[in-house]
Amino acid sequence: MKKKKKKNSLSFTTAFLITAGLILNIHETVFAQADVKEIKKEIKKLEKLRSEVKSLIQKNEKILKKIEEEKRKLEEERKSFEKYVKQVENERYKKLAKMFEKMEPELAGEKISNMEDPKKAAYIIYNMKESKAGEVLNYVSADMVNQITKILTQLKKQPKQTNQ
Fold it and tell me: Is the pTM value of this prediction over 0.90?
């Protein structure tokens, strides 16, 4: 009889383990299905966010292209403006040079000596007729003549273009 009890308790234990395994399997399946539903929800949220991010990227790329185009236009306008300013300044120096040519060389030399910016003085001398410029420079202070000469030397080395 002892053998039967062992056999019964073995079958009971086996039956218990099988039942417990089935219950756990069912429990895992139920939880797995719930997890799958949650995962699917999260995937949908992520796909929606991904779509929104792509949309924002496209919008920002369009804005960036507009900004780059505006930047290019502004750069062209800046270059055009700088060219215009140089032309105006060049014309101004030509007019000033004519005015200085009409002055007495001694007076013109005195005025050029008193100029604060030797570059401006150099551009005036540069635009004067050589003979008049030479006469005027005879009356300009030695320090200013040295500065003007340095600037004129640099101007002469540059390729011929609108000066200043």
Answer: no
